[in-house]
Every structure is written in C-alpha cells, then in structure tokens.
What we know:
Rossmann fold; Arc Repressor Mutant, subunit A; 3 domains; 6-stranded mixed β-sheet; two-stranded antiparallel sheet; 21 helices; binds adenosine-5'-diphosphate
Amino acid sequence: MIWKRKSQASIETNGAAETxxxxxxxxxxxxxxxxFPSTPFYxxxxxxxxxxxxxxxxxxxxxxxxxxxxxxxxxxSASADRLSRRRLALRDALGASQPVVMRExxxxxxxxxxxxxxxxxxxxxxxxxYGERGIGKTSLAHVFAETAREARYHVIYASCGTxxxxxxxxxxxxxxxxxxxxxxxxxxxxxxxxxxxxxxxLPNGEYGARELxxxxxxxxxxxxxxxxxxxxxxxxxxxxxDVAELIKNLSDRxxxxxxxxxxxxxxxxxLIGYAPSIRRNITGxxxxxxxxxxxxxxxxxxxxxxxxxxxxxAVETIGQMAGGSPYLVRLLGxxxxxxxxxxxxxxxxxxxxxxxVELVIREWQASLPRRxxxxxxxxxxxxxxxxxxxxxxxxxxADGWFTVDDVYAEMGGALSALAIExxxxxxxxxxxxxxxxxxxxxxxxxxxxxxxxxxxxxxxAMARLVA
Length: 467
Ligand SMILES: Nc1ncnc2c1ncn2[C@@H]1O[C@H](COP(=O)(O)OP(=O)(O)O)[C@@H](O)[C@H]1O
Ligand SMILES: [Mg+2]
C-alpha cells in the first residue's frame, strides 16, 4: 500500500488530518501524489524512456529525457513497466525530503513515543523535544498528533518561523479551536451555532501570556495540545520569554492546554532558556540516534514497497554511515535501492551501499559554493583533517555551535586544548571555513556553511570503512 503524502501547511488541525487518505498503488496515483523533486544526482538509464517513446518519432540527437510513468489512468500500460513502478515506490517509501506524518510510514521510536504519551496523559506536563537536525523530531510530533487525535485530544500543529510573533502566532492557533470548547458557551446557544473559534475572545492587537492564559483556561470538553515545531528558529527573545510565561500561567491555573515544543538543541535550557519557575511543569525529551533495529525497520519499508532486499552487509554499511540518523538511512537506502534496481537485481549488496555513499558525498560536495570547495581542498585543510572532522562531530549534536572543549572531547586528548584553539582560529581567520561567536562564556565556533560538517563526517566515516 502506498500512502498519500500530505502537503505541509504550516498550521494544521484535526480537520486537516482527515485528508490523509490511502490511495491504491496503481502507477497513476503514485504519479499524481508527486510530493518532492526527484533526487538531482540520480541519472535515468537511457533505456527507460522507451515505454513512452513513439517508435516512429525521430530525434536529431540523443533521445531527450521522458517521463517515467503515464499520467493517464491506464493500468495496463502502467503495469507494463514494473521497474519504473518499483523506483517510484522506493522513492515514496524512502524519500528523505519530508517528515513522516503517519504511523504506517514511521519506523521504531516506541520509547520516545511512550514517554511523550506518559508526559502528556499521566504527568500532565508540557514537553520539550530536542535533538539534532534530521533526527526525527517533526516526524515524532506528527505521528504523536495522530495518536492523540484518536484519543479525542484537540491537536494543533504550528511550525515556527524566524519572524514568529507571539500575538500573531497564538491568534492563528486559537483560530483553530472551536468556541464550543469554551466553558462560557452553552451547547445549542447562538455562539455555539455561529461556528466561531477561540481567537475572537482575544484582545485586539498585541497581548501577553496572561491574557492568553485567561482565554485558554476556559477549555472544557477536550484537552488541547499545541505543538510548536522548529522552536529554535525563533529569533525574538521576547517570544521565548512569553512562551515560558504562558507555560507558568497555564500550569498555575491547571488549564486543559499543554504545549509540545520541538527544536534543535543540546539540552532543555538551550531551547527554552534558563527558567527555574517552570522547570517542574516541563519534561525534556531528548531524541537520540536510532538503534540498529530501528534503522533496519526503516529499510524494511523500502523493501516492502519496491520488492527488494537489503543484504546484511548493506544494512551494516548504511547503518554505520547513517549513525542513527533516519534522514541518512533514507537517503542512502533510497540511492542504494535505485542502484540495485538499475542493475536489474533485487538484492542490495555492500557495493551498492558504498556506491550510494559515494554518490551522496559527491552530490553534497558539488552543492557547496565554489569558494567553500576550494577552501576545503587547501593544504591547511588537509593537514588538519582530523581536527575538522572532530569539529564537525562536535557541532552535529545540536545547532552547529561548538567550543574548544567539545572538540577536545571528540579528539580524545590527541591534541591539547591550546593547540585546538589555535587551529580553530586558523580556520576562522586564514582559511574561511569557520565562524566565531563572541559572548559570555567560552568562544563558540561553527562551520560557516552548514553542509560542510555533514560532508566531513560522511567522508571520514567512508574513509574508515574503506581502510
Ligand atoms: N521514525 C521514523 N521512521 C521513518 N522515517 C523517519 C523517522 N523519523 C524521521 N524520519 C525521516 O527522517 C527525516 C528527518 O526527519 P524529521 O522528522 O524532519 O527530523 P527533524 O524534525 O528532527 O529535523 C525525514 O525524511 C523523515 O521522513
Ligand atoms: Mg523538524
């Protein structure tokens, strides 16, 4: 069965979830639910256009690319090309450009899901989900939302942008809560019939956490869960202060509203700031790398969809290179699967997996700006390769920033802290690969161009594998 991907609106509610419908896995429906661009570094084999080529047509040069599948509901001709269908099915199952929104496409993660449910249902606290990019926070939030809706929670998902403003954000969230859930509104009253939402009870213009909590403490007949995804992107410090204040107000009044905040961070404080007054009302949920078994389960979805098998050695290679990141498991599994299908085989072997890694590394490298590419190939970069890889690892655990101590820990004492600091500065000043943030406490560094860190780590892992 192939499931339709839902388009990603920034805010969605219970209603939106109902539009997620399974579609039959005929080729035409698969084609119609195209949700993300085809992977750029995949080259279509020359013979694949044959299906749609008019045999009498002549082209002056080599044949121009064609669509893989027909958009007509023509099951007969669609099934004629089983290979293209398997490719599309594989992309649907392992494509890495979208978060998972449904349980059917969600691998593993029983433990964080269980802890999230317990925190919401039994402890009645607010939850902060944190971890590195691509680790699966948004996916967990979506699948959790589905589960909570089944238990009649009213769930609102909102993605934060850099420009998030407290009043605007929560006005649009409250516009998704029907007013019939407010204690002041009687069933069958004029207000209930009007179909209004909570937002009309808010003051006009800007308002604060207290006024918002006043309105939200009136929730009855359901419990409201507000998911604030990508919280780390919010730059306005007032927004974070107001949200902390809101948590305090909601908790003090025992309101039937709980927040679930997710973001890229190393720890709780980094995301919500140091706020001792709300500590006992919050639970932190760190998203950790997937286990081997979970990564295997993820690859199995590709196996089922495209009717292929990942051999144990291929699974091992992909698992090692991905290091528990579901994003990388999908990226590598997808590419390795395509390589296997193109070779007209059903079993993904280790060589396929390695080729997939090479493809991904090459593609990442090519996507870097020229300037960054040439800096990476400078002599200084080669002599300090170990340090750069350690720095990449140090930054990967959270938002990219790392300290001298972090790199020292990664290098296991191979270099003194003093030497590390000196070398890091070299890459800030002479070779423009790192940037430096001054402020209270230790100086922080990070790679000036985000793709560089992943590239370094993957190349290093690949080198270890080949050695
Ligand atoms: N449990 C899972 N099962 C299958 N795929 C997952 C899972 N968690 C994450 N993914 C995939 O990994 C990628 C990154 O996930 P996402 O939820 O966007 O991470 P984050 O929000 O932490 O950056 C997406 O392509 C998503 O489909
Ligand atoms: Mg996310």
